[in-house]
Amino acid sequence: MQLEEKKKKEIEFLEKVFRAGSSTVSSISPIADKQKKAVERISELGFPNRKIEDWKYYDFSPILDNFLSLDTCKITQIEKESLKDFLFPECEKNLLVTVNGHFSEKLSNFSFSKEDISILNFNDAEQLKNYQGVNELVEKYFAEGIEDESNFFKACNTALMSNAFLLKVKEGVQLEETLQILHISNEHCFNQTRSLIHLGKNSKINLIVTYVGLAEIPFVNNAVIETVLEEGSELVLDKIQDDTQKGILLYDLKAKLLKNSRFEYSSLNLKANSSRDKISVDIDEEGAHADINGLYILNGERKAHNVITVNHNVENSTSSQLFKGILSDRARAEFNGAINVARDANGTDAEQMNRHLVLSDEAHVDSRPQLNILADDVKCAHGSTIGDLEEDEIFYLLSRGIKKDDALAMLTLSFCDEVIQKVKVESARQHIKNMALENLDTQMHKANIVHNLR
Amino acid sequence: MSEQIIDIKELKADIVDGDQILKGLNLKINAGEIHAIMGPNGSGKSTLSKILSGHPAYEITDGAIDFQGKDLVDMEADERANSGLFMAFQYPLEIAGVNNLEFLRMAYNSKQKYLGLEEADPLDFDDLIEEKLSLLNMKSDFLDRNLNEGFSGGEKKKNEILQMLVLNPKLVVLDEIDSGLDVDALRAVAAGINAYKSEGNAVLMITHYQRLLDYVKPDFVHILSGGKIVKSGDSSLALEVEKEGYDLLAA
Asked: Mutation test of the interface with chain B: which of A324, A395, A451, A453, choosing the one with the most B Cβ atoms within 10 A?
């Protein structure tokens, strides 16, 4: 893109966001305040560039090229039948669906007691009025960090969001079932999906969030999730990004962990033209644990960026990160993961591992694991590997009569397995395996392998 | 005269882009026979097993291998396996995320398919495998685990023998199957080999020590040294080796 043309597109982008942002302000005052602040910040910051450390390897041109109208972001009629490939039977009774960023009541379904879990729409002032403590939650935890230049798209989301959710799990409520949150895109637009998830003391919930593209048209999905885990609570959050090959995903997750809470997170990037996951975890009270995992399978010209920060801000907390990527053709991956241990955070135990399987000479990986440790008494480990499939492993399978293509498929799945096993819902694990095989370049006997590997 | 299983003639082989290891090896094995190849470290024992099974890091530079009337040299590793050759690995590999039972069934069905026979469905296969398990004194939860993942040394070797029993090959090459085994595991492994053995197939044991031969009695013992077979005899040759060491015999 010519420099001048790029500048023009950036300005056009900013103007559109500014205009749309100014007209979509919520009627609830603490939310409106943050939205106004976001709009101000967008015009102050301007469009981000690669001089910002977090965006060093990111190519903005697909966003600028594909960013057309904000007006077309509307809810469209979708039959449930067309979603069947993306629904997990285990979550049949607990499903929340958005279409192009708008809540779809028709497609959603809840069996949870409203006493136990409240799902509130930020646009519905009447509904919010009946719940105590909403304003306080919004003031404390909503849209944190939007003033930072690296969070430009989070500011955009805050300014433009039309249907944001507050998902609140009541103190002491422990749910074994999984709630699926399905975000669908099927229009050429800049979608904002947004949720604030609050777990009360000693509560527990399993969530599986899926991003799905139903049409082979370009769109930009700008997703933000903020979550707060109060003392003793436990959140399992599996995110599956299942967009079409033309989707561009910007994803921002911020988690705040309070005393003795536990956060288990897995991110699975299976499709999309490009995805960028920014994950920030703040461990703000003792005894908390964060388990952050990711898998990305890339072929063609596809790209995946993972920018991860785990902040150990207090004493005695633990975290682990495991990210794995498989790249073929001319795919590119960036892993930029930091563990930050504050000066007083003695007793921190943190580990991080990033592994890549690179199946082509033209694929490219930038892996930057980082440890920033200011405390003395800590245990931290990190590592990064980039390799091909092991010749001896292939040979072992061949020597048992298994065909080479099958052997490669088995070993590739085997590489993914460690991350796939973290996903709690069985049918989701199977779906991920199927997608993994579909994405791989080798001529594999998919049906046979998937069948045999269960 | 009994059926010939394999005929290795003047076999020369090296590590790809490396040193020559086998320097003119001759060996003929007929159906119903158990052969043992013994030799000091570096004599070429492991290379022979890898050459026979088709490991890509080794190459044949000269000589011929006739396996059941087929030229083994031109066959890929999977084709060799499906044609009835099985190598039990000295160090079986751990493959995470691949279920042991499903792996066994895939291997079994690959061979069935290759031979134009009917593939086994999961239920039939469960029956087939149950009897093999009891023979090796293995519990069935063994099958639910991932292929060799976290297995002890003994469990890995038993799993090799289980694969052998399921695939029922014509020729078995056992590469140091006795290494790292305690007495109980060694007995179980030997019981598996003896159960497999019949008049229609053959066993080639590659070993450093005489220990295994107390449990599986060879008809022929060969001493491999410097990439060639330097001496052949009956099972008493193994006892001589145990007593005298390799140096004396190779001299």
From this structure: A395
